[in-house]
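re: ur question from yesterday

yeah so i grabbed the chain u mentioned. its 279 aa long if i counted rite. heres the sequnce exactly as i have it in my notes:
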Amino acid sequence: MTLFTPTDLRNRIEQVGDLPTLPHVVQRLATMIGSPTVSAEEIGTIIEKDQVLAAKVLRLANSPFYGFPSRIGSVSHAVIVLGFNVVKGLTLCASALTIMKDAGMDQLWRHSLGVAITAKLLATRLDIKNSEELFVSGLLHDIGKVVLYVKWPDVGNSIKDAMKTRTDHSHFDIEQELTGLSHAEIGGYLASAWHLPVTLREPILYHHNPMQAKDATLQTAIVHVADILVKGLACGNPGDDLIPPLSKPAWDQVGLDEQSLAEYIDKASQEFLTIDDYL
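ran it thru and got these structure tokens back, copy pasting raw so excuse formatting
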């Protein structure tokens, strides 16, 4: 039985428009990056006005996983090397990290980073153009949970209470039961509010139901598979210990056989050892 109606929660999203604690610079970026005339220097200058945020973006861009041969010393350089959408996503991720850590959600961040690492590995294997976007999609795929628990504590507490007595039900199922919405749908609304491209928006919105994706089908399949692999490897904890059902069509799209699966599990496990370098 729903305690909160989807309409009520959609109204909350529209009233929020964005996570209120995200820096003003992120809200400006949401509109600027869509402009065809904006330059890397303009984007870099805006981010660099927030020294703490700029430092976090550069730390992510210079993390061992990206492995650039020379250090990225400015946000403008990061924009040129990684692209507008990736830097915008990293800015959102750096902001979300602060919110998660302040709210004691370190295990959700570790899970999200594990999915980011695994999704990027799979995207590189499949020679996907702009594979860095898959890293960002993985980092942001559970951003809806931040809204549920940090911005809407009444909703989050109701979900927590239900999960204590219904341990055989997934977090996703209880969300839908109590609210009529899921964290994935909330994340999708936020991605639209942030003007993220469809290649980021659909993996966030459909990571539990990848066959619903229309435009970013392969990217969504990758994030879906990465989410389940990371859950199985127990890197972080997104809220419950149950492993979500795997979509067979998504699995087939990613194309992992038994040998390559073992290889990528080993690669991902090695990369997980570097997670603290991102924090």
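noticed a couple things. The chain is about 65% helix and 0% strand. also The mean pLDDT is 81.
anyway ttyl
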